[in-house]
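Exercise: predict the fold of this chain.
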Amino acid sequence: MAIRVLLVDDQPLLRTGFRMILEAEPDLAVVGEAGDGLQALDQVRALQPDVVLMDIRMPRMDGVEATRQITGPGRDGPAKVLVLTTFDLDEYVVEALRAGASGFLLKDAPAVELVQAIRVVAGGEAMLAPSITRRLLDKYAVHLPSGEERVPDSLGTLTEREVEVLKLVAKGLSNAEIAADLFVSETTVKTHVGHVLTKLGLRDRVQAAVYAYESGLVRPGAAH
């Protein structure tokens, strides 16, 4: 079955360009478009897309709030949100990731990257490399807690090895790099990452990285 995609951007020409790229792929189907966040919510309810390509800066309701409402608590629909941004260090991207986005992509990314990102996100994975998430969080550390806050009780549910894996995910290491660092197999790392996400109630590696920073487990600006 084709991956159902909803395009959300306030610029019709950009939506047309994205549609042309995506409809050339046999496994992707553009099921609708929206020009702002409110329209996006209506379209998500009506069309049940698998992936929402979400612009951030839009009238009436921005992409961050729309993302929060699409992926927030109590939402059991299939939609995953892939945020589109003009700038690779847009301050709103951090908020979108916190709101539940599965990753972000630059609007001028090559077509092949856009297509691959949609496939990855639709498969339930985070689209962006943890290193990008780390760079964003370091850049906007002012938005994050100081680290003096009490460590969340949920961290206590993790084993010592799972905490190690979470730290390495947040510091930008891939599964292969974590496996090499801990002298275990990639399959073992994937299992640990899965346990971390399940125990902490997180959707993907992006939210795991955000959690690691917000809990104080990893400090913004610390040596990587």
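Check your answer against the key: The chain is about 50% helix and 10% strand.
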